[in-house]
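Example S7 (C-alpha cells).
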C-alpha cells in the first residue's frame, strides 16, 4: 500500500477552480486503479498554512527528541513518509501561489527531507514520485515564454533537491486567452490526467 499526499494550493473552491477540476479527476481515477492506497488531502488554504516565523526556523535543524507531531516539523515528516505526491496549483505571476511556497518551507528541512554531506546537499526522499497539475493563463510552453515559467520549474527543482526525481507535469494552458475554448482544453487535460493516473 502506498501513501499519497494530494497537495492543493488554490484559493478558489472545488467546482470553481479549473486546476482542481483536473486534479480531482486525476485523484478519483487514481483511487479506482489503486484502491488499497491511502490518499491524504492537504488543502493548504483550508489548513491555514502560514509563513515561518523566526522562532520556527530553530527547528530546521531539529534536535534529538523533537517529535513528529511538532507543529513546525509534522509536515516534513509526513512528506518523508509518503510515497507519492500530487501537487495542484495555478501559475500565479509566473510562479506558484505563496501558500505553496510556505508549505515547501515547512517540508524542506535539513535532517528530515535532505541532509548535508561532504559532497554537498543530498535528498532523503529517494525513490518517490510526484506529479504537478497546473493551469496557466497563457502559453508558457512555447519557446518565447518558456523561460518565464517559474512555477513548475521551481517545484521540479526543489523536489529534486529532496531526492524526488520522478516528476511528471500536466499543464492546461491558454485558459485566459480570448477566443480559446477553455472547456475543451480543460476536458482534454482531464482525459490526459485520467490516463496517467492509471499507472502513477
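Recovered sequence:
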Amino acid at each position: 500500500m502506498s501513501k499519497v499526499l494530494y497537495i492543493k494550493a488554490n484559493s478558489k473552491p472545488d467546482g470553481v477552480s479549473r486546476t482542481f477540476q483536473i486534479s480531482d479527476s486525476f485523484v478519483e481515477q487514481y483511487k479506482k486503479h489503486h484502491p488499497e492506497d491511502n490518499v491524504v488531502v492537504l488543502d493548504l488554504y483550508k489548513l491555514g498554512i502560514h509563513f515561518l516565523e523566526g522562532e520556527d526556523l530553530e527547528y530546521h535543524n531539529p534536535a534529538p527528541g523533537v517529535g513528529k507531531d511538532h507543529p513546525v516539523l509534522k509536515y516534513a515528516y509526513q512528506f518523508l513518509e509518503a510515497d507519492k505526491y500530487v501537487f495542484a496549483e495555478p501559475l500565479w505571476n509566473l510562479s506558484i501561489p505563496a501558500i505553496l511556497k510556505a508549505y515547501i518551507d515547512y517540508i524542506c528541512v535539513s535532517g528530515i527531507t535532505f541532509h548535508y554531506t561532504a559532497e554537498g546537499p543530498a535528498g532523503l526522499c529517494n525513490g518517490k514520485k510526484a506529479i504537478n497539475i497546473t493551469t496557466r493563463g497563457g502559453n508558457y510552453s512555447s519557446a518565447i515564454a518558456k523561460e518565464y515559467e517559474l512555477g513548475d520549474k521551481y517545484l521540479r527543482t526543489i523536489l529534486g533537491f529532496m531526492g524526488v526525481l520522478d516528476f511528471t507535469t500536466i499543464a492546461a494552458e491558454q485558459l485566459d486567452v480570448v477566443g480559446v475554448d477553455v472547456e475543451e482544453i480543460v476536458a482534454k487535460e482531464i482525459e490526459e490526467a485520467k490516463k496517467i493516473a492509471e499507472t502513477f
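Notes on this example. The chain has one domain: 3-199.
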